[in-house]
Write a structure and sequence with these properties.
heterotrimer; A mainly alpha (about 270); B alpha/beta (about 280); C mainly alpha (about 270); B: about 280 residues; Rossmann fold; six-stranded mixed beta sheet; disordered C terminus; C: about 270 residues; MetI-like fold; 2 domains; flat
């Protein structure tokens, strides 16, 4: 080495977006968006400003929670649980054929596309929208709720099942095919053993999710505890509302605990 | 420089890692600590900068008893001790330069850390060290894109960024292949000698310890059972440290067998090697 | 080897499960089916409705088509409002969930009390559905998008906070140790050691939650919390199915688009 090297004394971390102009543009865009969104949203500020005192009033009227009409509460919660259970049970059953059809490595292309289409359409619309349509078709009550949750479970479990089958290591499929097994035999011998634990796990998870969603579909009149909650809010019956909310949180808690316990045991 | 007296460490699990360790390092030398797994090597190093709190005993560095310091004083003391880890422990998602500069964290305020604005002399030192460990031009590379040997070079440079008065080196080569291990050991030893920094170095590999250390300390069940020059590691000593085993190929001068009689290389060789690696 | 010995060593019968195991398994199946059927009975489902369900459904579809394309002008503004509710709600969540996540992660919280507070906030937020939060905030702020934004925020805090807290707890301990060994302060350790490790997860969950929030905010209008739900609700109540058709199509387009954007961005980040 002839002369000692001169080392730089400045260093800046490389930025995610290398061009400074693009970076500033990005920030400007974000700011503009915020301004635009705040500008277009119609807000009744006087009403909002009364929000805090109203919130205080609301909470004071919520306390203490009123559990005196516990029969109504228990009936609503019971209905929610039954809705969730029925929907999960039938959803789980119907999801199997649809899930199989939606697996790219099993089904022929047209069937695959049709099954995927069903899954995408049913998944995209929010449960509450589906619920309100069912309420219009079948009238108020738990039937609409059950159907809603059924559709939601169906598409969720089918999607998971299809993805699991697609991600299955192809080796065991090939090995069983190589013995000359027909498709149903393949199903029983190669696919079922590998898919069963996951399928059961996803189904139990969905039962838990249905329990949570069963509390909301009632808000548009599809039965369960949600319907009771909506009615209590409409009557400004806030102390009963709080009792219902507490019951819902407890229900969700128990459901989550139960589902975690079962899924732990399945392993 | 560094005096450790009657150091005990008992973990909450009841495991006694250190059973009264006393040792003094008063020369700028590389001290290898060898011993079986669970002998307390890692605990000993971590008690020096109190990443692990010792149960009793004292660690005195240049007249300051580390074990008695408050949190704030401890941070000041820690920046005088550079540490190198087995698993490199870089911040994977930051660039090499940011990892190097993190060695200066004890010296700069939070605002500079936040803005990544370090003093110019720190930056110059970082570039110089990058050059020195053979990673010229890597400053903008993210740490997770580096190989094991390169990561350890960054780890070494980060520790030296602290301009430490003591190096704590914990199994620097345990995750590396034999060739890279020797390169890394050579870098550590040369840098320590160049700067006159004493180094406390945990190591599994007895042969590596013999070829690079100036002094070897043998630890067994949390106690010092050997302290002396590397050539004092005969079969009897190794049996005392590690237990019964056929040590005939390891004891005495292991260097000849491992390097095929080549003379140990010195500074200058390293740079050509680094450029290749 | 006698014939009996041979037969004992190489039996002709092999069962995966013992008869007892099989029995228990079928008992479980029977129990589940029984509970399902019992629940169906309890729900008092009017089966008669199913007789003409397919007629009803066909009728509905016929009335939805052709969609009333002229109606799209009235759909556009509420649709944009829906996206705004989701985006602003997610943005607020981003700001609020951040400190709460650090409180609820075992390795960054101050003490047991702060950890408990953090966990409590996350659990409460998560157990109540967005629509129910909507009911609460409409009662507080009155009908409109402000209630919607807060409903989205209130629900998302639990979701994002939980995921970020988990990410913080899984941070590489060795890196933290190394940064501490340089003599860095607590704040510096968080900023240099913890944050870079969790940042991609924070961005990823934010984008993911934004995509979920678009879907959630389409129904907030049912309880009066702004967005496209309001006109969807009124169109359904008026049985204006051709309008409902166009609204559902537009929701479909937006949701699919947001899902696409979210997936693309998340793929780029990681």
């Amino acid at each position: 080495m002839s002369s000692p090297p001169v080392y730089p004394t400045r260093w800046k971390p490389p930025s995610l977006i290398s061009s400074p102009a693009a970076r500033r543009g990005f920030v400007a865009l974000a700011v503009l968006y915020l301004l635009w969104s705040f500008g277009t949203i119609e807000v009744d500020w006087s009403r909002v400003s009364r929000g805090l005192p109203r919130a205080a009033d609301l909470f004071s009227r919520m306390f203490p929670p009123d559990f005196s009409r516990w029969e109504l509460l228990v009936k609503g919660v019971g209905e929610s649980v039954q809705m969730a259970f029925v929907a999960s049970f039938f959803g789980m059953a119907v999801a199997v054929p649809i899930g199989l059809c939606a697996a790219r490595n099993l089904a022929p292309r047209p069937i695959y596309l049709a099954a995927r289409g069903i899954i995408v359409i049913t998944r995209t619309l929010h449960e509450v929208i589906v619920a309100i349509i069912f309420v219009k078709v079948f009238g108020f009550g738990p039937l609409a709720g059950v159907l809603t949750l059924f559709v939601a479970s169906l598409s969720f479990i089918a999607k998971m099942l299809a993805e699991d089958i697609e991600n299955m290591p192809p080796g065991s499929l090939e090995a069983i095919r190589a013995t000359g097994a027909s498709f149903p035999k393949l199903l029983v011998y190669a696919i079922t053993p590998q898919m069963l634990p996951r399928y059961l796990g996803v189904s139990i998870y969905r039962l838990d999710a249905n329990l949570r969603h069963s509390t909301v579909v009632g808000i548009v009149g599809a039965g369960g505890i949600g319907q009771v909650l909506q009615a209590s809010f409409n009557r400004y019956d806030y102390d009963f509302s709080l009792a219902i909310l507490i019951a819902i949180v407890a229900l969700v808690f128990i459901g989550e605990f139960f589902s975690a316990w079962i899924r732990g045991r399945l392993r | 420089m560094l005096t450790i007296t009657d150091l005990f460490k008992r973990y909450p699990t009841g495991q006694r890692a250190l059973n009264g360790v006393s040792l003094t390092v008063d020369l700028p030398q590389v001290v290898a600590i060898i011993g079986p797994s669970g002998a307390g090597k890692s605990t000993l190093l971590r008690c020096v900068n109190r990443l692990v709190e010792p149960t009793s005993g004292s660690v005195v560095l240049d007249g300051i008893d580390i074990t008695k310091l408050s949190r704030r004083e401890l941070r000041r003391a820690r920046r005088r001790m550079g540490m190198i880890f087995q698993e490199y422990n870089l911040v994977e998602r930051l660039t090499v330069m940011e990892n190097l500069l993190s060695g200066r964290l004890g010296y700069v305020g939070f605002w500079r850390t936040y803005r990544r604005r370090y003093p110019p002399e720190d930056i110059r030192m970082a570039y110089e060290l990058l050059d020195r460990v053979g990673l010229t031009g890597y400053e903008d590379t993210r740490a997770d894109a580096l190989s094991g040997g390169e990561r350890q070079r960054v780890g070494i440079a980060r520790a030296l960024m602290q301009q430490p008065e003591l190096l704590l080196v914990d199994e620097p080569t345990a995750s590396l292949d034999p060739k890279t291990s020797r390169q890394i050991m050579r870098i550590i030893v040369e840098l320590a000698q160049e700067r006159g920094t004493p180094a406390l170095l945990n190591i599994h590999d007895v042969v590596l310890a013999q070829s690079f250390a100036d002094r070897v300390i043998g630890l067994r069940a949390g106690k010092v059972v050997f302290d002396g020059a590397p050539n004092g590691l005969d079969e009897k000593v190794l049996t005392e440290i590690y237990g019964e085993e056929d040590w005939s190929t390891t004891a005495a001068r292991g260097e000849d067998e491992d390097e095929g009689g080549k003379p140990p290389r010195r500074r200058g060789d390293m740079e050509s090697e680094a450029a290749v690696g | 080897m006698t014939v009996e010995e041979h037969a004992r060593r190489y039996p002709e019968v092999w069962r995966r499960f013992s008869p007892r195991q099989t029995l228990v398994r079928y008992a479980w199946y029977a129990g589940i089916v029984f509970v399902a059927l019992w629940s169906v009975r309890q729900l008092e489902i009017p089966w008669l409705y199913f007789l003409d369900a397919h007629v009803q459904a066909a009728d509905l579809l016929v009335r939805m088509f052709p969609p009333d394309w002229a109606f799209i002008e009235q759909v556009l503004d509420p649709l944009i409002e829906t996206i705004h509710i989701a985006t602003l709600g997610t943005a607020f969540t981003f700001i609020i969930a951040f400190p709460i996540a650090f409180l609820s992660a075992r390795n960054t919280t101050y003490n047991d009390l702060t950890w408990l507070i953090g966990r409590f906030i996350l659990v409460t937020s998560r157990s109540v559905n967005t629509v129910v939060w909507g009911l609460v905030f409409v009662a507080i702020f009155g009908p409109g998008p402000v209630a919607g934004i807060w409903a989205i925020t209130a629900r998302s805090i639990g979701f994002m906070g939980k995921l970020i807290a988990e990410a913080i707890e899984e941070v590489d301990e060795g890196t933290i140790e190394a940064i501490e060994a340089t003599g860095a302060s607590r704040l510096q350790v968080l900023w240099i050691g913890v944050l870079p490790q969790v940042l991609p997860i924070i961005w990823g969950t934010s984008i993911y939650r934004w995509d979920i929030n678009i879907r959630e905010s389409t129904v907030l209008g049912f309880v009066g919390a702004g967005g496209i739900g309001i006109i969807l609700y009124s169109s359904i109540n008026l049985f204006a199915w051709s309008e409902v058709g166009i609204i559902i199509i537009s929701i479909f387009v937006v949701v699919v688009f947001s899902e696409f954007v979210s997936a693309a961005v998340r793929q780029r980040i990681t």
